[in-house]
Amino acid sequence: MSQLRLLTSRLGLQAARLLAPRGVQVSGGRSGSSGPQAAVPGSRGGGGSSYMEEMYLAWLENPRSVHKIRGHHVAQLDPLGILDADLDSFVPSDLITSIDKLAFYDLREADLDKEFQLPTTTFIGGSEHTLSLREIIQRLESTYCQHIGLEFMFINDVEQCQWIRQRFETPGVMQFSSEEKRRLLARLVRSMRFEDFLARKWSSEKRFGLEGCEVMIPALKTIIDKSSEMGIENVILGMPHRGRLNVLANVIRKDLEQIFCQFDPKLEAADEGSGDVKYHLGMYHERINRVTNRNITLSLVANPSHLEAVDPVVQGKTKAEQFYRGDAQGKKVMSILVHGDAAFAGQGVVYETFHLSDLPSYTTNGTVHVVVNNQIGFTTDPRMARSSPYPTDVARVVNAPIFHVNADDPEAVIYVCSVAAEWRNTFNKDVVVDLVCYRRRGHNEMDEPMFTQPLMYKQIQKQVPVLKRYADKLIAEDTVTLQEFEEEIAKYDRICEEAYGRSKDKKILHIKHWLDSPWPGFFTVDGEPKSMTCPTTGIPEDVLTHIGNVASSVPLEDFKIHTGLSRILWGRADMTKKREVDWALAEYMAFGSLLKEGIHVRLSGQDVERGTFSHRHHVLHDQEVDRRTCVPMNHLWPDQAPYTVCNSSLSEYGVLGFELGYAMASPNALVLWEAQFGDFHNTAQCIIDQFISTGQAKWVRHNGIVLLLPHGMEGMGPEHSSARPERFLQMSNDDSDAYPAFSEDFEVQQLYDCNWIVVNCSTPANYFHVLRRQILLPFRKPLIVFTPKSLLRHPKAKSSFDQMVSGTSFQRVIPEDGAAAQTPERVRRLIFCTGKVYYDLVKERSTQCLEDQVAITRLEQISPFPFDLIKREAEKYPGAELVWCQEEHKNMGYYDYINPRFMTILNRTRPIWYVGRDPAAAPATGNRNAHLVSLKKFLDTAFNLKAFEGKTF
Fold this sequence. Notes:
Blueprint: H1 2-11, H2 13-19, E1 25-26, E2 38-39, H3 48-61, H4 66-70, E3 115-117, E4 130-132, H5 133-144, E5 148-151, H6 158-169, H7 178-201, H8 216-229, E6 234-238, H9 244-250, H10 256-260, E7 283-289, E8 294-300, H11 310-325, E9 333-340, H12 341-346, H13 348-354, E10 367-373, H14 382-385, E11 402-406, H15 410-427, E12 431-436, H16 454-462, H17 466-476, H18 482-502, E13 524-525, E14 528-529, H19 541-551, H20 563-577, E15 580-581, H21 583-596, E16 600-605, E17 620-621, E18 629-630, E19 643-647, H22 653-665, E20 669-674, H23 685-692, H24 695-699, E21 706-710, H25 725-730, H26 746-753, E22 757-759, H27 764-776, E23 783-787, E24 799-800, E25 813-814, H28 819-822, E26 829-833, H29 837-847, E27 854-859, E28 861-863, H30 867-876, E29 881-889, H31 895-905, E30 912-917, H32 928-942
Parallel strand pairs: 6-8, 6-9, 9-10, 10-12, 11-12, 16-19, 16-20, 20-21, 21-23, 22-23, 26-27, 26-29, 29-30
Antiparallel strand pairs: 1-2, 3-4, 5-11, 7-8, 13-14, 15-24, 17-18, 22-28, 25-27
């Protein structure tokens, strides 16, 4: 009893009760007793050591025993045998081999062979109900401390933990049939011989091969096989560049000749765009899964060198595919993300993407994450690259189980991947497979890793490749013969050689073979290319009126809204009666009319349901019933397309990437992302630069995503003023020095040739039209809209139904229509501007009574630059000075973009003078008085008709 008291004192009374086996009751003792008492089953009588045996067994078999919680720390995960996957070689006392703890329990070696009744909480016995203590220890260590390290006990769901325990503890679960082993060997042959073939043919080319983790190919194929078996029809993959060519060849099953021809040094793009390096490209393929004999569609999304940037893009594309298929539970469409260890731990977008995983409007019902754990970054030791024990620890924040596995044990890898796929299908949650491997070469084939990792790479040079290791194992157990193995190698080598011969045919060099999101039928009508025209974007007045009426009502009965919102809805109703709209109502009518035409609309971003400036209110909240909401937009017509408006997590990088991926899936949807303030797109710059601006040029990827960026200098300080239009304009691809050839279809052709469209609308009607034009164009381009803040409620910023009805269209330029336009010969100054500053200029012109001497023309579409309309406006006022006026500082905004284009269209015969704020480092002042002083200064200059006399250009 002294030992039991000792255990109780060390563990605590509650712990002793928890650990005690069935039938043993531990209590605090009766009055007068010296310590806890134990009621011992009659079958276990025989002295103090039997109590200890029971307690030791309970310690081993408790559902929260040390093996399950921390066994992964001593698992043999590193194929090289030189590193600890958790970066720590120290083994805590409670992780010392369990047999070493015998003395603590006053047990002897002979006690290990005693038989024990197994508790119902364990699965290690299988159909057996009793096991020796020795066998119990061995089975637990075999499950948790060998080539698989399991992290799952942090999951706060007992059912899920028990599900994982059953998959790994049950004896015999990792038994494979001869057929399965032979298939695994064949897949390893393809994976390794593909890399060997590339190394022989293009030894001096970068290819970011998979050597050292060849098992990733059968791993991915197993996930796909198992998912297909459970009903998945569409798998969307994202990955960095290491192993991409191998995945394209042996997972997606892209024609090898299409891959090999990319190594041709004389390769010329057979289609538009600059193209990209071969290990960045994507692919889309429909084929039969030979294991399940079911159709499967596989997409590998193109990704730049920014590694994890593709993560949210894949999730958005997956969400869209699920939406269009009506797959609310993710039983038909799923995603797989492949990561590198250093990037997975180091890049914040991984965290942002994980935090989208369970949000209602962003969940894809679980993703299988496969980490290729090279145990090194480019050249950086992991001990210098992360603070967490494992690179995968970020996944713990969403209770995703993490399965670490030694990548040189192919059967362990395959089993883990099968369980991961089953987990995703069962619980609709993320899961991580950590393939602990090595990089046989450096970061790329031209790199010398011995400079910085000499000890690791000395071991790698001696490491037997996984293919040989596994082949020797199967040959030894008579699963295959040496001849069969060699024939499998020769067979695949022959396939590669024949594809290499075909790759010389120049006819196959076509970048459209690399599309990851084809839109069948979109670019043609009856087999012929669409005409390069755009219909008018106006709609019938009765449709406008109907939308306005719904926008100003509450479609649900007994739904109590906020009194302040009642006033807003009343205002919408009043505007509808007056046949006019403000910014919010114009947007409502654009969305609503597209829904009527069967176009799905999705608006996403921080607080977009209400709108940052409390102007939108697309989701109404019942003031008396918690979580009861109403979206009137979804009550417009019985057979309308659905409208999705969703507040996002506080993320820009991840969410914009998600919406970009969503827009990739179909051209027949208007997908919009709104920044809370325009400058917040700064933290999504990677998506803008690498995917949106350049996507078509690099990957022939048309995309119609819309960015709504609130912009305007209103004395709010430097952080909430500028959406940085200069950045978007600098990345626009139209040539400032090329005098265009005007034609009948000049407007649409310009749009087709540009990489994106940049607008700053000054009227609600023009905003309405540009959103509708985005869908009615015969192609898709990203649209950047600098949206207003103060203009949302400006009394002058309203439009009549007459500017939106059938026959009307988006105005790239809004010319002067006042007194100055009636007598253009008398006009002394023509001011060009864009956006909100127009209203400041009009007010100042009226104050100075210069309506007939100064004309003001608004540039609504900035890029591509409307050369034809600007030329027409300048020629209309031949005697006027030309001025560009902007509220942004001179080194920001639009001036550096528009100036050379004005010079081109005017043949440098007339100057265009700059009026605005002086150059500055910050985009705006935070001092209200300073803001007003600078505003008055440049307005005075704009209407000082002698300001530029005597100056030359």
